[in-house]
Amino acid sequence: MLDLSKYQSIGEALRDALIQYSNEVCLIEADREREKERLTYRDFNERAHALSKALQDGGFAIGARASIIMTNQSKWLISAYAIFFAGGVLVPLDYKLTPDEHWQLLKHSNATVLITEYPIWRQLSTSAGRTAAANVQTVLVTEAPPKADLAGAQRWEEFRGAGEPVFIARKRQDTACIVYSSGTGGRPKGCMMTHENYLEQCVALTSIYPFWPGVRYLSILPTNHAIDFMVGFFGPFTCGATVVHLRTLRPEYVREAFPKYKITYVSLVPLVLKNLQKGLQARFDALPPGKRKVFDALVRINKAFTKSRPRLGLSRRLLKQVHEAFGGELRAIIVGGAFTEPQTLQFFYDLGIPVANGYGLTEAGTAVTVNDLKPFRADTVGKPLPGMEVRIVNPAADGVGEVSVRSKTVMAGYLNEPELTAETIVDGWLMTGDLGRFDETGHLQLAGRKKNMIVTEEGKNIYPEDIETVFESLPVKEFCVFAANYIWPKRSMTGEKLVLALHLEAEQQYSEELRRDINARNNRLLNYKRVHGVVLLDEDFPRTASLKIKRNILAERLAKLDSAAAILPL
Amino acid sequence: MRTLEQTTQEVLDLAAKHFQLPEGSLAPGDDFFKKLGIDSLQTLEMLSRLENHFGIELPDYEVQGVSDFKTLAERIQSRL
Fold it and tell me: 3-state class of A504 per DSSP?
């Protein structure tokens, strides 16, 4: 691995890695059962340089912002490196957002370049939001069919400059990426992540989960997500490892990829991990009684021998068939994006497959704590990573309080939001809004959330403010969306739901017609963003002088209602 | 060549069968996440069944953001 303490920027570290590991394979890309491409670090370098040169020829200069909206594929990483090489700031956006949401964030980030895939561009180019984001001057589109109407975009594949680009140096404190942790509604939260944030996070993470040439990482989580950016790009690349991309994420092809590419690490969201557990459990349950008995005995032996630490070699021999289904080389499954239930973690650990669960948030530079497997503890999210200071603010009698973090990995702040930044980073400490406590061995245990948001099992952060526009002009006196757990706090990280608080007009009834109207609007939202129920409150909502709803005070009033009776299902 | 109506009907029948619902209980405008109570992963599984049935390949991006049977049938129809 490169000694990252010597480097100033992501671009500088990657530049050296591409030379040091030039003969190693850095990327494998497959579509279903077909392998489409295999690139060495040298190939990667050549492609990125041609793109970087063309960007520079087009006037892309130091500090300019370029956005990527793509599914996981080699051109994502090549484009990102080309941007860093030219001294630019990367704005990675979630390809699953709607076109209008994309344009809104493109405008907010002030990106001048957009790199995207043709099917995504087809929708973006015809979206009404396009006119608002006049800052986007250059659009590069990958994989466009030969005669496609590019609607003002250029082909990524033909956007190549002749000659060598000039490497533009950046400093550790400069912004490397603007990562949106939320905010497609009124208040986009663009986390300004510095080069130092990434360099330090990489050192901390690879100290526990190392990469080296020969390691193969299966990249499934979207690369715009801080986890995949780190463990599916920057981490493996600075160590000479290989990243495998799949162009389709159908479960059957993902399953096939493990043995086919001998995967070493993979990152998953809890929902996918649980699905994997269900599939395995069904296969175990289908074993004939005799075989099942033997299998259960082997699991018990494995459990006994791995109590204090994982013993991969032993587990692979004992539970050969299970490990072979995963390719026989899997060292750990990294799970992130949302809270994972302890029983799921334990299920895999008992099979000899450690799950690297932890706790993190974009604002803190991804991971704050990670299970160090010494020993494995399914009931916690692990200990703070090296370089992370974590403390519990205002703990209650049971030790539970708000988790706060101080580290070189904490973001510089939210783009264009100095007040929000000052509320979030207080005296150098990042206030996470998550509740937790440390146990006697120094492991962090999460205990709920004090912020008004939910995280789905698919790892989606949903902020109530972001979805309220869909209910605008609803025929009621006033409304407000809340995370149910913000109103009625519970010491749990699962089953989080959104509710719609309504204040009806005088004499107005909560009619079937109104319920249908709410449902129809709700259905316009992506499924994971929908509200779960309605709460009626027969009093004026408290408001500020500028007539904004005082959410915290309204939540306190709603909290007096009994949640079980108050939430009317839709 | 199937008409869009035929394709839509086959999609509905197949989804009902896959999720063990009575025949005719699904409508083209239904939101399949809500109606079937499924998550995005189960949707991908359903898509694989549909691909096998129609003998086509539906790239993941084609079905991004689609949540009702009618639109899904249209996407399938465009690839038949």
Answer: coil
B42: CATH: 1.10.1200.10
Inter-chain residue contact A523 with B40, CB threshold 8 Å = no
Q: β-strand A444-449 against A429-438: which pairing, if any?
A: antiparallel
What is the domain count for chain B?
1
| Cβ neighbours of B40 in A, within 8 Å | 271, 458, 527
> Using CA atoms, how far apart are residues B30 and B26, in angstroms rounded to an integer?
7
Q: What are the tens digits of pLDDT across the range A508-523? A: 999 999 999 999 999 8
Q: Which of B44, B68, B72 to mutate to test the interface with A (most CBs of A within 10 A)?
A: B44
Interface predicted TM-score (ipTM): 0.74
Tens of pLDDT along A4-63? 999 999 999 999 999 999 999 999 999 988 999 999 999 999 999 999 999 999 999 999
* Domain range enclosing B71: 4-77
Is A120 within 8 Å of B67 when comparing Cβ atoms? no
Distance, CA of A139 to CA of A88 (rounded, Å): 16
Report all structural domains of chain A as residue ranges with CATH numbers, in order of start.
Answer: 4-261 (3.40.50.980), 265-449 (3.40.50.12780), 454-569 (3.30.300.30)
DSSP code of residue A231? I
Q: How far apart are CA A282 and CA A465, in angstroms?
A: 40
From chain A, pick out residues whose CB is under 8 angstroms from the CB of B62: 119
DSSP secondary-structure letter at A546?
T
> CA-to-CA distance for A92 and A79, rounded, in angstroms?
11
- Name every residue whose Cβ is closer than 8 Å to that of residue B14 and which is 6 or more positions away in sequence: B49, B50, B53
